[in-house]
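target protein:
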Amino acid sequence: MSSSMFRKKSRSRVRHHRAQWHRRMSVPQLAPCPNPRCRQVKPAHVLCPACGQHRGRQVLSPTRD
C-alpha cells in the first residue's frame, strides 16, 4: 500500500474544529423587510411572512391579521 496523501490531524486540531459548531448555532440575523410599506423585522435570506415578498418579488399573498 502507498502512504497516505494527508497528514494525521492532531488531537488539539480535531477538538478545536469540533468545538466550532456552537459558534454557528447562534440567533438568526434579523433584517428589515426591503418592502418600503412593510419594513417588518424578519430573518435574513427568508421571505417576509407579513407581506409575502422575497428579494423584491411577490411570492405569496400577504397575510391579513
Remarks:
- The beta strands are 30-32, 41-43, 53-54, 57-58.
- The first strand starts at residue 30 and ends at 32.
